[in-house]
Design a protein that fits this description.
single chain; 346 residues; mainly alpha; 19 helices; 64% helix
């Protein structure tokens, strides 16, 4: 149903193809804003870029997509058209979904298999709207379960190069008696990519894009927004407190948690997302494969559909009544979950 049509619920794919086309033209997609590049002589005459620009939702934002995804965007841009590029990206998502299917079946992880193949949110936001969490979640699952440390490091690096949030889970790996030489080597190998993102220096434009997102974007916010509204607290203060809480919880879970790796990672990511000011529906896709049978996760994959009402307005804003419904019901599930102790993953 979704395979041969353009995404209906997201226009991010225009930026994916824009970045990929810039790479094909020998440009660094991290260094300049689209609105600036549009005026460059040898780029403003490019028909493919001209067809992409009207669809961009981020003409004044620097690219925030890590290098591995830029490679995928380059492959998609080889098609030379929007429809062809979307077809290539969707084919890549399908390849990852099939890989995840056979990987789960081989290891008897039937709950994960059923969760992402039957979950409407995974189908709509992953296959339908081409969000990159599908790639990051797959690489992360491989990193958590690989028997060899070299494979774990490579998979974790790929997850971080897909979306940056998996770096939050680094303590889960470093507190497992790591082979430090391999980790140091992996870190050194990332340095050229970092400098490429900065055009030979520190990647300030990339960091500026992330800063803009973290400081100004607001959509479907969690409990911290309620505190902000009730007590007129600065967002920066609450974000700082949230960061301290998330880091503390991460280290506590890594050091003293006794749960399986999936559940540890899922608990950390759930806590991180729950305290965020911007929670788009596709942000919870990783939870589907990390904690497929957790009641709160199952509930949120359906409650999150309430937030789609916020996309009807400009700027996108979820009504307060919807926020109270979504997070109120989710909090009830969390309470019942703790009361019954039913967070085990099979």
């Amino acid at each position: 149903m979704y395979f041969f049509v353009l995404p209906a619920g997201s226009d991010d794919f225009y930026r994916f193809l824009w970045d990929g086309r810039l790479l094909l033209l020998g440009e660094n997609p991290f260094l300049e804003l689209p609105v600036t590049l549009r005026a460059v002589d040898h780029l403003k005459t490019d028909d493919f870029l001209a067809s992409l620009y009207p669809g961009l939702n981020s003409t004044h934002y620097f690219s925030v997509y890590p290098p591995l995804m830029q490679g995928f965007f380059l492959l998609a841009a080889l098609a030379g058209s929007v429809n062809g590029g979307v077809l290539i990206l969707r084919s890549l998502v399908l390849v990852f979904d099939l890989f995840l299917f056979f990987w789960c079946r081989r290891r008897g992880k039937w709950s994960v298999l059923a969760a992402f193949w039957l979950c409407p949110l995974w189908i709509y936001e992953g296959v339908g709207n081409l969000h990159l969490e599908v790639f990051a979640a797959t690489f992360l699952l491989l990193a958590l379960h690989s028997p060899r440390e070299g494979s774990r490091i490579a998979a974790l690096a790929a997850a971080v190069q897909s979306k940056l949030w998996p770096i939050l889970l680094l303590p889960l790996f470093l507190f497992r008696r790591p082979r430090w030489k391999l980790w140091i080597l992996a870190f050194v190998l990332q340095i050229p990519l970092v400098f490429w993102m900065g055009g030979g220096g520190w990647p300030y434009p990339f960091l500026a894009g992330l800063s803009l997102y973290s400081e100004h974007f607001l959509f479907n916010p969690g409990p911290l927004q309620i505190l902000r509204s009730l007590f007129d607290l600065p967002r920066a203060v609450l974000a700082g407190v949230a960061g301290i809480l998330v880091l503390s919880f991460t280290f506590f879970t890594a050091l003293w948690g006794k749960a399986p790796p999936d559940r540890k990672a899922g608990n950390i990511y759930f806590f991180y997302i729950f305290l965020s000011f911007c929670i788009h529906p596709w942000y919870i896709l990783p939870l589907i494969v990390l904690q497929p049978l957790r009641p709160a996760v199952l509930a949120w994959t359906y409650l999150i559909f309430l937030s789609y009402s916020g996309y009807r307005t400009v700027p996108a804003t979820v009504p307060d009544v919807i926020l109270f419904m979504e997070f109120g019901l989710l909090t009830i599930f969390l309470f019942l979950e703790r009361l019954g102790g039913r967070t085990r993953i099979r």
